[in-house]
Design goal:
Blueprint (H helix, E strand, L loop, with lengths): L1 E9 L6 E4 L1 H11 L4 E7 L4 E6 L3 H14 L17 H10 L2 E7 L2 E2 L6 E6 L6 E9 L1
Antiparallel strand pairs: 1-8, 2-7, 3-5, 3-8, 4-7, 5-6
């Protein structure tokens, strides 16, 4: 069985961003040489997420509105976590959107359903963060 590992690094200027990372994960799959197996992608930071959904700007705006209703950024004082930090909301948003995805690999391709894409969700931007891509298979 083959095993492949790579870190993808991101640094966003905006506090919250949704980036389609599907092509980067597909490049990792090509590099790995795996034809049948599994791809794991997970955010290696507690204020970021990796998730699968549709690449549609209206949906991403809906995510933003929905997450702000569930865990609004301000006032910062509403979160017990916020002492010297102001990112209590980002921790909660990550819990909602999830930490990782696993995608089957079939015939050397990501085995997606219709419209599925992999996204990196940033909820506390302004510093470098990474996503781990781990691929196993034959």
């Amino acid at each position: 069985m083959k095993s492949y590992r790579k870190e993808l690094w991101f640094e966003t200027d905006a506090r919250r961003v949704y980036l389609n990372i599907t092509s980067q994960v597909e490049e990792c799959l090509r590099e790995s040489g795996v034809r049948e197996g599994l791809v794991l992608c997970n955010a290696m930071h507690i204020t970021a997420s990796v998730f699968i959904n549709d690449d549609e700007s209206g949906l991403h705006a809906d995510f933003e509105r929905w997450l702000e209703k569930l865990a609004p950024e301000k006032p910062h004082s509403q979160y017990a976590h916020n002492g010297y930090e102001d990112n209590g909301d980002a921790h909660l948003k990550r819990q909602i959107m999830g930490r990782e995805v696993v995608v089957a690999v079939t015939n050397g391709k990501l085995d997606f359903g219709p419209w599925e894409q992999i996204f990196y969700g940033e909820f506390d931007g302004g510093r470098k963060k990474r996503v781990l891509v781990k691929i196993i298979g034959e």
